[in-house]
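Hey, resending since the last one bounced:
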Amino acid sequence: MGKKIVCRCNDVTVEDVEALIDSGVTDIEELKRLLRIGMGPCQGRTCVPIVLGILARKTGRRQEEIPLPKARVPIRPVRVEVIVGGDDE
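The structure tokens again:
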């Protein structure tokens, strides 16, 4: 059987997540920083719930006990025109 993808945006597998948890990384924020889960175009809509489930299973905690990763907004506001390329700023 092939690898089981958790995060399609950053090509993270179940094995990647489990290896970090087995090495002692049990904080969702640290998993996010190390694996870049939740940082792709989907912003974690797909991978974060899956990683929370893996983390809960591997640590014996309930999913509800694990806080969601923090969302970080841009440091300064950016106009939508700049993001979509409609402005030369």
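The chain has a mean pLDDT of 89.

Sorry for the duplicate.
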